[in-house]
Structure prediction request, 346 residues.
Amino acid sequence: MRKIFVTGGAGFIGSAFVRLVLAGQPEIHIVDYDALTYAGNLENLSGIDESRHDFIKGDICDRESVLNAVPSDCDAIFNFAAESHVDRSILSADEFLRTNIIGTQVLLDAARAKNVRRFVQVSTDEVMGSLPDGSDEFFTEDSPLQPNSPYAASKASAEFVVRAARETHGLDTVITRCGNNYGPRQFPEKLIPLMIANAMNDEPLPVYGDGKNVRDWIYVDDHCRAIWLAFEKGKAGEVYNVGARNERENIDVVRSLLDALAKPHSLIKYVEDRLGHDRRYAIDPSKAENELGWKPQVTWENGLASTISWYRENQAWVEHIRSGDYRDYYDKMYAARLNASGSTQA
Ligand code: NAD
Ligand code: TYD
Prediction:
């Protein structure tokens, strides 16, 4: 058995990665390390092959705990653990800087101390800032890092500490930068699951600004396959952009969800915009395609249909989350905005 150490494996993308690796790589044993913050959920791991998966509850900033948890014969650390929501980083940045930067440094130090073969940092296209509306520009691996939100700034800083570990200590590192993921088990603070959950409950759908911000959407399993290939085939020290060439305006995404759920467009409410709202993300994934042999396998239509089916069939999962601290967050983020919103536009 080859061992890998996955952080954040109880979150949305981390748990999809755990599932994909256990299903597709029979020789891999996973040590899954997660602090189980509000976004971590052991229900995300239900039904997996427990014989090749050890779960350890722990904080990536806790040096001693991390050193104890990383196995001595470890092929790779995959760092998914992060504070991941832009809106929360606008409310308060502290936890983003702690987990996303300090936590990454602690993991890099552990990788060196335990002679881990490769360190895979799961980064985001958001480190590259925003592209102009309607331009034909794309993010490439050479695009400058110009983060605009505290979340993006913390992820860009994480990339810098990864780079420094490579340049200073010769650690074998690879960074992936992916666009917006969607799929089952995404925490309903992010656009797609929030809109699905609200629509299923006949609640208003809060669209920020004019709804014309563009995101480049990718099905979560396609992202996870790219991360695995970056580990197996990526060149040390390289960055790989990951995207499915699937740019969509937010309002079009929301309308598609309402149509699929047979709910009226009158549920859409335009609300006050997000501060510093990035206008457009668009990824050129040529390098990952050419060097890793990666290609997305899931079309937007199929991915969206299976995502909606999952949320329909797992309403208990959604309601469990929505009944907890989430309510406070939702009220803080949306109550005033929705009260102020007069406009319902289809
Ligand atoms: P998520 O918020 O769903 O999950 C994050 C996980 O990390 C949770 O299980 C949480 O418990 C864990 N965690 C948080 N702080 C921790 C800490 N201090 N120690 C240990 N565990 C901790 O996030 P996600 O959407 O699954 O994103 C996973 C990674 O992918 C993040 O690094 C994110 O920046 C990156 N990413 C996300 C997207 C996206 O669209 N969601 C796109 C590109 C990159
Ligand atoms: P989000 O899912 O938070 O991802 P990110 O900010 O990392 O791209 O948001 C996706 C887009 O949807 C973004 O342009 C903000 C917008 N949005 C809304 O319009 N309303 C909402 O309630 C949320 C959560 C997001």
Summary: The first strand starts at residue 2 and ends at 7. The domain at 2-182+217-242 is CATH 3.40.50.720 (Rossmann fold). Residues 233 and 292 are 6 Å apart (CA to CA).
